């Protein structure tokens, strides 16, 4: 027996679906507004949700993130009206199981319902049988949980995988995770950076060459395709592969055979291909910049990594993970995160995604020196300025008082000169210790302070060096 929730403001639709589910032996509840439906989801677990798009208090599709953001998120069947192709498209993009056009025949509803529940049972069984090794893949948001499902599917298959996402989202890490959980995990994971390959050296690097095959070929060299034999070949930024190389690689992908430069003998390589790109390959195909036949070959399983701004709830989890990792690497006690730091990390939009977040955290970690807490003041200036500008800009856009209207508030908030000097003094010392904390002589030379004066200031601000 499954537990089903219907969120639809049409009493007749609710009655029909409830009657069907009860006849099939399922527990079924109905809500006529989005608010009531989300309240049900907050109180109990459901296996499946029938979700109407147009509800009195909101759009059902816009609530998909909330609906799926649970420990055991329900599968969703979206109910759309006639002549609403955009609704169907958005439903599929939102990761729903299926969509039904109202009114739909009872037989079709029943078949869709049964397929969704059967799939859910299989997914549960697979999850119990296969515990994924997600080393360094961090996130608890609904979009990342969908990624974990796709990783499990890709790991249990030997088909080609295309990982898409913006720069810095962690596409190579995801590819390594798929390899590590696959049957090829004991063999090599070979990375090819397509963006760095020049046309003149591309075939030599991919397929290898024989001694004397060209100027500078002083010895035989095994190509990366052969090194990936029995393992995984990862083509990073495949969208940068020249058209001439795309044709050559397509044949290799089809036949798993290739010829090293300067050799008359064909070699074989049984590799699993995972590709990654930050570009829209479908658009490139239309523009004649990427081969359509190669696109179809590499795109058997597609896995999209969301940008960090699309998984805001993971920002602090990722930051905490990276600080802990840095502490373990240096064998020091785990540092705390100041609440102001947490708030600033949440407000920043992270255009460089996880890569930028980790780099920022590492900079702040270094500047924190021997302190037990990482503060917002340790963040790079560029991050702090961007957050401040965003915050001030939003305040003005929301109708908050401008500088001229709020002079009294500004004057009240302005610290005394003594407090300001003390704050800046501490900030300077933190940067000094962060950069040269192990070298007292260097700190003295850079600061121009005497040894006794430096130690006195460090003691005053409770900073260890």
UniProtKB/TrEMBL annotation:
Q: Which residues form the Sigma-54 factor interaction domain?
A: 137-366
Q: Does the keyword Ubl conjugation apply?
A: no
Domain named Response regulatory: which ranges? 3-117
Q: Which CDD domains match?
A: AAA, REC
Q: Does the keyword Phosphoprotein apply?
A: yes
Give the keywords, sorted.
ATP-binding, Nucleotide-binding, Phosphoprotein, Transcription, Transcription regulation
Gene Ontology process terms (BP): phosphorelay signal transduction system; regulation of DNA-templated transcription
Gene Ontology MF terms in the entry: ATP binding
Q: Which residues carry this modification: 4-aspartylphosphate?
A: 52
The record's listing under SMART domains reads: AAA, REC
Protein name according to UniProt:
Putative two component, sigma54 specific, transcriptional regulator, Fis family
From which organism does this entry originate? Answer: Desulfomicrobium baculatum (strain DSM 4028 / VKM B-1378 / X)
């Amino acid at each position: 027996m499954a537990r089903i929730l219907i969120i639809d403001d049409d009493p007749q639709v609710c009655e029909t679906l409830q009657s069907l589910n009860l006849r099939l032996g399922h527990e079924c509840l109905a809500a006529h507004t989005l608010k009531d439906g989300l309240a049900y989801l907050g109180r109990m677990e459901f296996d499946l949700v029938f979700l109407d798009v147009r509800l009195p208090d909101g759009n059902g599709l816009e609530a998909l993130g909330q609906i799926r953001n649970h420990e055991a998120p329900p599968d969703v069947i979206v109910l759309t009206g006639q002549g609403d192709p955009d609704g169907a498209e958005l439903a599929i993009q939102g990761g729903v199981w299926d969509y039904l056009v109202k009114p739909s025949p009872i037989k079709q509803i029943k078949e869709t319902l049964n397929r969704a529940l059967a799939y859910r049972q299989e997914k549960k069984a697979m999850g119990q049988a296969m515990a994924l090794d997600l080393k360094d893949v961090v996130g608890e948001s609904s979009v990342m949980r969908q990624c974990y499902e796709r990783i499990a599917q890709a790991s249990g298959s030997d088909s080609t995988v295309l990982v898409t996402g913006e720069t810095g989202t962690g596409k190579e890490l995801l590819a390594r995770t798929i390899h590590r959980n696959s049957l090829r995990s004991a063999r090599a994971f070979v990375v090819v950076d397509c963006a760095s390959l020049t046309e003149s050296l591309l075939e030599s690097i991919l397929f290898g060459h024989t001694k004397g095959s060209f100027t500078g070929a002083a010895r035989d060299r095994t190509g990366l395709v052969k090194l990936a034999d029995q393992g995984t070949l990862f083509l990073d930024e495949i969208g940068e592969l020249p058209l001439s190389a795309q044709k050559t690689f397509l044949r290799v992908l089809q036949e798993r055979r290739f010829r090293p430069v300067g050799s008359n003998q064909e070699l074989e390589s049984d590799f699993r291909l995972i590709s990654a790109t930050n570009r829209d390959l479908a658009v490139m195909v239309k523009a004649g910049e990427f081969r359509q036949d190669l696109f179809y070959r590499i795109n058997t399983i597609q896995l999209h990594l969301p940008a960090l701004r699309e998984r805001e709830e993971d920002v602090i989890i990722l930051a905490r993970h990276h600080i802990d990792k840095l502490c373990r690497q240096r064998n020091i006690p785990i540092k705390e995160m100041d609440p102001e730091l947490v708030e600033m990390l949440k407000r920043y939009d992270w255009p460089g995604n996880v890569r930028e977040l980790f780099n920022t955290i590492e900079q702040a970690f270094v500047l924190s020196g021997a302190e037990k807490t990482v503060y917002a003041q340790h963040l790079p200036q560029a991050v702090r300025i961007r957050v401040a500008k965003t915050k001030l800009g939003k305040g003005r856009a929301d109708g908050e008082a401008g500088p001229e209207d709020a002079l009294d508030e500004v004057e009240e908030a302005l610290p005394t000169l003594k407090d300001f000097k003390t704050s800046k003094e501490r900030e300077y010392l933190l940067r000094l210790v962060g950069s040269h904390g192990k070298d007292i002589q260097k700190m003295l030379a850079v600061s121009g302070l005497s040894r006794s004066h430096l130690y006195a200031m460090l003691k005053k601000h409770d900073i260890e060096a």
